[in-house]
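User: Quick one: structure for sequence A, then sequence B.

Assistant: Sequence A:
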Amino acid sequence: MGVFKPLPGAGVTSGAASRVLAGTHGKRLFTFVHGLSDRGEAKMGGRARFSRLRLRVLVVLVGGTLWTALAGTFAAAAGASPSTAYVTNANSNSVTPIEVATNKAGPEISVGSSPSGIAITPDGKTAYVAVGSTVTPIEVATNTVGSAITVGGEAFGIAITPDGKTAYVTNPFSAFGHEVTPIELATNKAGSAITVGTKPRGIAITPDGTTAYVTNYISGSVTPIELASNKAGPEITVGGEPAAIAIAPDGTTAYVTNFGSGSVTPVELATNKAGPEITVGSEPRGIAITPDGKTAYVTNAGSDSVTPVELATNKAGPEITVGNEPFAIAITPDGKTAYVTNFGSNSVTPIELATNKAGPEITVGEGPIGIAITPASSSTGPTGPTGPTGPSGVTGATGPQGVTGATGATGPQGVTGVTGATGPQGVTGATGATGPAGNAAIATFASAVVFWQNSTSGACLYYTQIAGQGFGGCPAIASAFPISNLLTGPMPANGAVVSNVYAETDATLSGKETATVTVIDNTTGASLLSCAVNSTSKNHCSNTGESPHLAAGDRIEVKVTSTSSFSNNKAWEVSFRY
């Protein structure tokens, strides 16, 4: 039976095999992609294993494209051991699960013709496989294949957003050859295609889920896509025939393998600027970055090797020999092991990353291309119900009390030790009870001039805070609220007192003239404090005593009473505390 050998320009084969397919060892993808000759088919035993159209599908994986889509998932699960690697076998039309703990391959899962790209949801429940012009879901718990999802043209690379809601699929062989199709994973419905560069291959999504980056094989560029709007931005020029792409776990830099240039191009994502190319092996395809972000590993199809690149310096290390025509690469969540698909060897090579030593190859299906590893959490089943509480044990008997020993003699008093450091300040004590209401407010009553018709009846002064200066007949006693310019407002608190009465006239009294100033509780009619102005005190008097306690709401008035009419026509001002 003939075995398909994809063209190296597509990121699949190299060496003698590529010469069989293309007849030359140079830039061969153009012929392959556009199907200009029968070199797009591999003929063995007189018949073609795959048509040119199917060959295009196998180009799809871009050696590590789907890997980059999983980089964020691996970084998040660092420190735990993964459970299963899933490998797409293009020539077996299947997917092979590999138990990572034992490196044992399980039974192949039939998925359809020429599977290529593969990605696994962050929760580890579902794998999505690019199969022809569809994407096929696989339930990881049972390895059951679901209904295929139709996308635009031939499906290639796959990347899934960190929130697990959307998959993005490159379609290099759609009607226009430059599209990416989004799939809503809750419903497995494909959305409207997004136009990018020519022949999109690899795709990776930033760890924050805001942007996807797509390699355009023919355009020699990378297209950023803003995922909130699914709008493509300006293309970023990189090396020749860019294939796969991976993004560092910190989201600062993307690394692109350039199949035609034998290099890797770093792209600074804050500015979308490409840096100097890093030379690696021949025909680099796949790329994966360790969860700690220190090293990238690049598969070299033409060198049958993997090149480690130290990302702090962008320096390539010694190549690691693996199987024939290595394609894609994946790294376990704990960062200890990388797995490389060898298209020409029908195998997967594990690499111990602590030593960069390749282990024995693991046999899988024919033409392995894509690979993805489930997160560690996916291997754990659901928590079972809590079992019933067992019976309490019997309480042991209390042992007998021991004999009290004799009191020893008192020793001599020791030397006084040095004074210890001052301890921390103690906790602030509770606030004491509130004391009786203070006499803080000051009331002022005044009139510019006062006339008495009857010297013994007196007159009351205006409360200046309400009406300014003035006087009038004193108001009657009122228990309800009276409206009057002659009264203060309510007391500030129950139990207030009147104190420190001070009265003053604008002219000196003489002879037998006397005027008495009285502060009166209008609510009860009680006199609170008073003082007298006479010829001895000349024009003022005061009383520094305190009145009886008032009730809240009481009003106060100030009455001036003269002993004769000679005290008429004088201005008065009276102040006190309450």
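Sequence B:
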Amino acid sequence: MKHLLLLFIALCSVTTLRAQIGIGTNDPKANLHVLGDPTNTQVVDGVIPPKLTRAQLIAKSGLYGPNQVGTLLFVSDLTGTPNASTSLITTVGFYYFDGIYWQPLKGSAVPMVDASPAGFPTHVIKDVPVTNMVFKVTVTNNSFSTASLAFQNSDLALTGVSGLTVTATSPATANLIAGQSVEVSYTITGTPTSVGTLTATWTKLSLTCSAFKEVKTVGQSVQDNNYASSAALNYLFVKDVAATSNNTFTVTFTNNSSGTINGLAAPNISNLVLSGAGSAGLSVASVSPSGLYNLAAGGSKTFTYTLAGTPTSTGTLTATWSYYDLSATANKTVVQLKATGGNVVAIYQSGSNYYAYHKFTSSGTLQVNEASSMNYLIVGGGGAGGKNHGGGGGAGGVLQGTYSATTTSYPIVVGAGGSGQAPGYNTRGASGSPSSVFSLTAYGGGGGGGRNDTNNTDTGANGASGGGGAGNNPTTPGTSIYSGQGYNGGAGTTDATAGNGGGGGGAGGAGGTATGYAFSGITGAGGIGISSLITGTATYFGGGGSGGRWQTGSVGTGGIGGGGTGGAADGAAGSAGSANTGGGGGGGGGAFGLGGAGGSGVVIVSYQLQ
């Protein structure tokens, strides 16, 4: 009976323990209520949970599962190698089991923050607007309850560099449950107006964190110490000779940093200033490229300024370039021509040498101011084409060579091309006139032959190059009578009625012989001219005109070098030889088609300047 009574008491005690337990109190208010004795200075208050080393807890890892969620203990040291469930035990302290990990028990309801300048561009540059510049801060709720937070631009203060402001914040609010994090981004815009260390300081809930960025100049950012040596004034600048697209200033700099520089503004014409005696008459006309650009690491940028105007003085031309904090200077001497005169005066480059040329398209005077070896091209006027399925006009003579000019005046004569014909049967084309300089003469080309039903006297005329023979009565071409200046014309064709005209001779080859008659064959082609490099560009002069035809059909081509083309049908006129080439005119078509006028001659003199 006594044993049964004890068992009943024990069971009752267990039942009571499972309800509410009070320690230091007879009136527990919860499952476990520990009442301290705060006024008794001889009593140590507090609750001591189980203490384990990390190694001991690791050894017990297999005992903790879903039924142990919420278990609380104190890790007294960090011995042992952590496994998965104990990987978060990194300091001595209280830990609770969440079913997977032992989590540190932190009593503070204040979030943890981590600032990052990850959104900052590689380069932030004075006087260059920033793009995509973002300050980021990560906020983590380390409390056991939900935290509601609001964010605004004023959370972030920018110091150390002027010109930048915070203009946007995202997100504006966040509700974080225990352990949850949010990344907050603050957008920074503007243009830095100074250099130095930009400090971005974030303050929230009595916490603070910062990120830093060095703001530099363009020069400090590109790290190019050699760009100034690339500055150059290009081509030759000559007094009284208009600048061309070749007269430029160029400068190149390279981004030697490890990152892309974004948002640079290309310079404008005001970034280049011209000075010095040689700058008179010149201005900066344009610069390319323009607009905004990015410069990748290792990339280079070249700016080209085109100069315009005509220098009015010799002397030093200085070009001074200023761009952000970069600057460079280039110098060039404006030189003087060795002669004056001509309808066109221009400069060209051949290899490393520069030449001036004076082109006379009409008669005038070449005034030589400095004795020099001068190159010349002299072209006589071309002959006109013959009338009425006439022969093509012969080309003007072409002379090329070198002359040792002294300081004196040299008269220039430019020969006219042969004129077209008046109505009637006496229809040979007029011959061209001679051109001359340095006592040298290039003679005119012979006129093309014309059909003559009365006395058969209008053969192709003789000249520097002979005119082509007419298509019938007479078909005989003219010959070249000035050695070395041209070639013979080509013969025309005939039958009992009429035929096709022959081609006029060219300075480089004979005129073509016609073939066929009405509705058949082809007229003679004009003889080829001669190529010259006296202006720096290969150009042909002295092409013969092609013959005109009877009825409708094919005509030969005018000779390369300004030769005209013959009329391709009855009544069709031949085309004129090109002006200032000495080209022969094309022969007229049948039924009194008029021959084309001969092209005028030209005189060109050139010499080396540098």
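Residues 541 and 581 are 5 Å apart (CA to CA). Residues 1-17 have pLDDT under 50 and may be disordered.

User: Thanks, that's what I needed.
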